[in-house]
Amino acid sequence: MALDKKKLLRTRAKSMLQTLETETGNATRNRVSTTLAESYNTLLDDIVEVVPELQGALPNQIRSTTPFAKMGESDADHVDLKVFLNQAVDLLDAVCEQDRAG
User: Fold this and answer.
1) pTM for the full predicted model
2) 50 exposed, middle or buried (CB, 10 Å; 0-12, 13-18, 19+)?
3) How confident is the model at residue 3 (pLDDT cuts 50, 70, 90)?
4) Count: domains in the chain
5) Could you tell me the residue range of the domain that residue 42 belongs to?
6) Could you tell me whether strands 73-77 and 31-33 are parallel, antiparallel, or unpaired per DSSP bridges?
């Protein structure tokens, strides 16, 4: 049985999002670690590789350009990442829905 790459990518994005949604209090305002940002950026690269049509629609990658980068933190906070992941999941849902319909 071949696994659908689009569904696997959607699952990766949803699992990242679900983990972020379990955070409470001050953790939601923390900056995203560079490790997590790199994982998210890799996810976006993988999505573009599988569904090139989404390249212009996906959110931007997370950068680490501020002084926080020296401390292992990216430019985005966890709320930003949640928004970005929700956008990616919704786009992948639309692609998977179109595949089912068509």
Assistant:
1) 0.90
2) middle
3) confident
4) 1
5) 5-22+30-101
6) antiparallel
